[in-house]
Structure formats: C-alpha cells, structure tokens
Amino acid sequence: MQTTRLNNGIEMPILGYGVFQITDHKECQSCVRQAIRDGYHLFDTASAYYNEQDVGKACREMVKDCAVNREDLFLTTKVWLQDYGDGKTTQSVERSLKKMGMEYLDLVLLLSRSGLVRAIGVSNFTEKKLEELLDMAQIIPAVNQIERHPFYTEDRYIARMKGMGVQAESWGALCEGLKGIFHNPVLTRIGEKYGKSAAQVAIRWNIQTGCIALTKSVRPEKMKEDIEVFDFTLTQDEIREIASLDAGHSEIIDLENPVTERLLLKAKLLA
Ligand SMILES: NC(=O)c1ccc[n+]([C@@H]2O[C@H](COP(=O)([O-])OP(=O)(O)OC[C@H]3O[C@@H](n4cnc5c(N)ncnc54)[C@H](OP(=O)(O)O)[C@@H]3O)[C@@H](O)[C@H]2O)c1
Asked: What is the value of pTM for the model shown?
C-alpha cells in the first residue's frame, strides 16, 4: 500500500477502508479481516459508529495470526461532538482504545494532545473553520477528513489545505453510491479504456489528485475491486474531465446549514 507523509512525519496509507453503517458486529469483524487479506492497512471508524470494538478485535486477531504487523496498520477513530474539551476528549480516546483493545491509535479526528495517538486531525472542517483553528492551534492538524468525490471535487480547498500542511482525506469517495456514480457515463467510458469500473476510476482520481480515499463495501468482491486501483494512471485530460462533473456543493450533507449543525450538536452517543 502506498503511503503519504503527514506534517508530523508519520506515514499514512493513501487508500483505506471505512466501517460507517456496518452495524452487525460479526459482519464488521469479517469485513475488516477480509480487507486486511485484500491489502487494506488504513481503517476508519468512530465512537459514533458503534463498531470500534469490532475493528479492534479483527485487527488484533490478524496481528496474532501474523497476517499483518500492528505497525503496518493505521487505525483512525473520531471523537464525537459531545466529547470535546480537555478532560472529555482524553476520556473519549481512552474509551476508544479500551474498546479496540489497542495500546495506541494512529489518528484521532478532532483534537487531543494525548500521547496515546500518533497524529491528530479534524473532520468536516470547512475552509473558514480550518482557518480559525489554525489561527489558534498549537498543533496543525495532520488531516482534515471531508466529503469528496467526482461530484464534489473541492479542488481549490484541497490545494489550500496542502499549502497549510493539512492532508486532505476523502470520505464518501464513492458518493455513498448516490447520483448514479457507478454508471456515470464519463467514469464508465474512462474506465473502459483501462479495464476498470466507474468506482475504480473515482477512487483513482481521488488519490491521484492528492487525497487519501476512504471507501466502504460489505461485499468481498467490491472490497477487492476498490483496492485494485494501483495498476493504472489517469491522464491530465481525464482528471480535468472528471473534475468537470463537480456540482460545486455537497451531495450528502450540507455542513454550512445551521439546521444540520444544530442536529449534530444535539445528537448524543449511547452509552
Ligand atoms: N467524517 C465523516 O463525517 C464521515 C462521513 C461518512 C463516511 N465517513 C467514512 O468514510 C467511509 C467511506 O464512506 P461511505 O461509507 O459513506 O461511502 P462510500 O464508500 O462512498 O460508498 C459506499 C457505498 O458504495 C457501495 N460500493 C462500494 N464499492 C463499490 C463498488 N466497487 N461497486 C458498487 N458499489 C460499491 C457500498 O455498497 P455495499 O456495502 O453494499 O457493497 C455502499 O453502498 C465510511 O465508511 C467512514 O469510515 C466519514
């Protein structure tokens, strides 16, 4: 798996497997084990996904079976909004570590200065919020995980983040399957040239344009498909053509909408 160097020097895989909405514990564990067999090293969970324990269990089993070294895995979790603040954030990270049965995490999204994590980052920070944060932060976040796919390219912001030393990471790299992405004529036509699917072209475009891409599938054949993106290279013309699919706004969640913000801030995690 290819990696990229974060602003604190640590290496992060450029493609990862996310477990959002995999609610069945056995299924989640089996998917993570399968993903490791397929070659995924980066895993993305969150306290709010209620499956940190499954990601941890599957990873520990695979390490025990010598299928992978812990040092080669890159485990990300996220602190939920209600758990912001000095003491609360540390407690949330400690809870995540305990659930996962891990000694350390590689990346925690939403800030904490704990020694229990190798890198800290943020998620869903708009340009304005990231600028405000950088004005006062003692540590520049290593990563900002945002929605990004061919229908919401955020190219200017991605370049701006690069200038700030913040690595962009795409969630919903497949637009959560919305907007007919898997049959999009542009992605399909470009894919035909390389013997690849529209999904593989979307993922390749994401990593070739400087983002770490996260995808999720519970189907073994699709998990394999989503990682088989390292044997072809899109041309600059193809990258430009894909960028022209940009709708200029989110297809999944509108973070600028005060109603969304209010709903998210109100949502409490179950114990
Ligand atoms: N920070 C945040 O706010 C945030 C928000 C959302 C997600 N995330 C992270 O990003 C990860 C990925 O995003 P996501 O899960 O929302 O969506 P996604 O990866 O863009 O899309 C997932 C959907 O695509 C389908 N799929 C995957 N590969 C496919 C392929 N090759 N062909 C056809 N269908 C395919 C999956 O179906 P099947 O499962 O049925 O195969 C699923 O319906 C999440 O799991 C999570 O870790 C973060």
From this structure: 0.94
18 DSSP β-pair partners:
44
* Under 8 Å between Cβ of 41 and 1: yes
Atom number of ligand 1 nearest to Cα 19: 45
Torsions phi, psi of 234, nearest 5?
-75, 145
Structural domains of the chain, count: 1
Crossing angle (nearest 10°) for helices 25-38 and 52-64 = 40
Catalytic (active site) residue 49: yes
Does 107 map to a domain? yes
Question: Which residue from 143, 196, 215 has its CB within 8 A of the most atoms of ligand 1, so it is best to mutate?
Answer: 215
Task: CATH number of the domain at 201, please.
Answer: 3.20.20.100
The series of mean pLDDT values per 10 residues for the chain, 271 residues long, is 96 98 97 98 96 98 97 95 84 94 92 73 93 91 97 96 97 96 98 98 97 98 98 98 95 81 78 67
Residues 6 or more apart whose CB falls under 8 angstroms from that of 68 comprise 36, 41, 59, 62
Write the CB contacts of 12 (distance below 8 Å, at least 6 apart in sequence). 3, 4, 5, 6, 42, 74, 106, 107, 119, 142, 143, 167, 212
Strands 15-18 and 212-215: parallel
What range defines the domain where residue 204 resides? 13-266
Q: Is the CB of 150 under 6 A from ligand 1?
A: no
